[in-house]
Amino acid sequence: MTPAPAHSPPPDPPAARALRLVVGCGYLGSRVAARWVAAGDSVFGVTRSPARAESLAAAGITPLIHDVTKAAGSDPLHALPAFDTVFWAVGFDRASGTTHRDVHVAGLGRLLDALAGSPRVILSSSTGVWGDEKGGVVSEETPVNPSRSEEHTSELQSRQYLVCRLLLEKK
Q1: Which of 38, 44, 68, 112 is the most exposed place for a label (fewest CB within 10 A)?
Q2: CA 116, 154, 110: angle at the middle one, nearest 5?
Q3: Is 16 exposed, middle or buried (0-12, 13-18, 19+ CB in 10 A)?
Q4: 83, 117 in Cβ contact below 8 A?
Q5: Is residue 85 classed exposed, middle or buried when 0-12, 13-18 and 19+ CB atoms within 10 A define those classes?
Q6: Torsion angle of alpha carbons 50, 53, 58, 61, nearest 10°?
Q7: pLDDT band at 22 (very low <50, low <70, confident <90, very high)
Q8: What is the pTM of this model?
Q9: Which comes out higher in pLDDT, residue 85 or 137?
Q10: How far apart are CA 87 and CA 70, in angstroms?
Q11: For 21, which DSSP code?
Q12: CA distances (Å), origin 128, targets 29, 63, 96
């Protein structure tokens, strides 16, 4: 038997849990949140639905009931800690009485204004911002050509808005 060295290195500290926020916990958002919970991350999920909030809590996700189209006075996001990552997966509800721009541009702006720190922001949107590519390959180099004016133009504007904010923060 070999004796233990007199001064062994300390054990590695446990990995810090990432703090994640998913805004829009529908089909895609709830699946991303579940993957992050399974990876051991601490996940908050924004939904407009109290019923969805209950299912998020049952899945280990801290629910926040909030509508991104509402004014900041009703915003629970200002009191939250700084997140490492924010995933924007907000869908458009045609019955909400709002426009695509209210959701994807103004709503994203309200969210970014409310957040502490400088989290990594991931936007999800449809491929419709590229228009009809007739089955061809679409990549980051494909020129945008929204086929449905308001819906896809607003998604494109949300991307441009985020890029502009990030560039201004770096100055």
Answers
A1: 38
A2: 20
A3: exposed
A4: yes
A5: middle
A6: -170
A7: very high
A8: 0.71
A9: 85
A10: 19
A11: E
A12: 19, 30, 21
